[in-house]
Amino acid sequence: MSFTERFSDLAGAYVAARPSYPVESVDILLEGLGDPASLAVADLGAGTGISSRIIAARGPLVYAIEPNAKMREAAAADPRVKWINGTAEATTLPDASVNVVAAFQAWHWVEHPAGVAEARRILRPHGRLAAIYNERDERDEFTAGYGEVVMKYATDATEQRRADALAAFATIDPARTQRFEFVNIHQLDRAGLHKRAESSSYLPQTGEDAEAMHAEIDDLFTEFEKNDSVNMHLVTLVVRVDT
User: Fold this and answer.
1) For residue 4, pLDDT beyond 80
2) Is the pLDDT confidence value at 121 over 70?
3) 161, 159, 164, 162: which is closest to 149 by C-alpha?
């Protein structure tokens, strides 16, 4: 299954249970580039538009690049978000058309050299590249428990792929690279926690393993819930490269 196709059945779970991003993590993308309303941003692998809408709310025009039709169709409309059927390696955008190229929770699906070349092609002079990830903060006991379940039932090495991709991104131009971290708390009810797991393409969706995984997730929720919800502790990482 291609990287694009593996998300075809996950759009509903994404909309229901994927975390957002702190506004500070978006502001750091736009910092020092001038009036946000005059900026254009390419959001690579935009999914259902969680990141695109947050960026647009700060003022820029956003080109949401998403190759999966079902993910695009699940996105809520926003007048400052223009959806494009394209990939990180072939965005279809004109040369020098955007100020920022960003990939939220998506750079590990990008073929690195081709993605960097395409980003440089569409960036305006003095533009910016960024990779942004929500990662579990397992210093929190509940979040650590959820992480143990994820690692137990993971069907491939996507988590390691994420780490490797972020490390590779940071080598594009080390002298012009900065790293930022922001606290991000994702509150979930019981159904939301199950949907969060269902939104991960590397966790089992059906069969005995999926049933066993959801039983453990249910037990974890019961152990840690307060007022019918749990807080998943995340660190939002931003790796920013100025060109």
Assistant:
1) no
2) yes
3) 159
Counting every residue, how long is the chain? 243
Whole-angstrom Cα distance, residue 124 to residue 111? 22
Which residue type, as a one-letter code, is found at position 231?
N
Q: Which of 239, 235, 215, 167 is nearest to 19 (CA)?
A: 235
Q: 59-95: per-residue pLDDT in tens?
A: 999 999 999 999 999 999 999 999 999 999 999 999 9
Domains belonging to the chain, first-starting first, are 5-135+157-184+232-242 (3.40.50.150)
Report helix, strand or coil for 179: strand
Task: Read off the tokens for 138.
Answer: 């397992």
Q: Which residues pair with 61 in a beta bridge?
A: 40
**HSE value, Cβ hemisphere, 13 Å, CA-based, for 103:** 26
Name the nearest CA neighbour of 135 among 146, 127, 124.
Answer: 146
Q: Which of 239, 191, 184 is nearest to 20 (CA)?
A: 184
In the three-class reduction of DSSP (H, G, I as helix; E, B as strand; rest coil), residue 24 is classed as helix
